[in-house]
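Justification of resources, computational component.

The compute hours requested in this renewal are based largely on the per-chain cost of generating structure records like the one below. Each record pairs the submitted sequence with a full structure-token output. That output is archived, and it is also reused by downstream analysis tasks.
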Amino acid sequence: MKRLDEHGQMILIAGFIIGIGIVVLTVMLNNIIYASNTASESSIETNVFDYSNVVDTTIEAYEKAYANSGQPYNDTAFNAYMADYSERMVKSYSLSGFIFTLDTGPMQDAYFTENGLADGNDDWIVIERVNNTDSFLLDKLNKSILGNKSNKFVIEVNNQSGTIWSASVFNSNGTIALNVSNQSTIIGNYTSSNSTGFINITGNQIDGLPVTPFCFPDNVTGQKYSITFINGSQAMGTFCLKGNLTNGDPFYIERVEVVNSTIKLNKNDHLEINVTIPIILPRGHV
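The structure output for this chain reads:
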């Protein structure tokens, strides 16, 4: 009987040891899983940071390259600046084990969409919380791209009550036409005589020649307003806006051309980033 008691105690001790072992293994396994998840999340955060950083610095580089290319624009100077930037980025990221690649597409005339491309956002707010607009220019409007009267490009100036001034631009039998109105009346109908595609909204000029005033300042002075482009894929050219926001800060927005840039970032033969982004030159400053 005493021998049976000893066997029972041994079985009990062995079971106790096995139970402790299971608990220890479970804790260790949980720690391993936690450490793996933490490392994975850390890698994701790093990738997000790398993506944001490389896109921002590349956009800024394109803008500086364009600014430093001189006036008139010098393609050789622009390409030399971007080649130097790309070489520096290759060296910088190689220290972290990344392979950086930058492919620059050709310069393109910009549509009046949000990103400058034909398939970009058609209806978008160019600037809001505006107190004063000193200069508003449209230039090099492409007649072959410009929509007709039923599919026109529209500029709207809106305050909290609605539209206080608007202009419709369209192709009328091979001539650039401009119809302007305010909240209640039609201000005037205009045409581009020389068809150079230059319209100075704040300076009351078409193709450099004075016209009956568009009455832009008359309708917006003293207002807090936004400027919106509608149906932007139906117009191609350049535009420039300059003035002050309601907080007193100046703003300057200019769009000349757009370029598609493809950025790749590889590490250990694994593609971390591969993105093609439209870069507007120069970029708007607010």
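The longest helix spans residues 2-67. Residues 1-35 form one domain.
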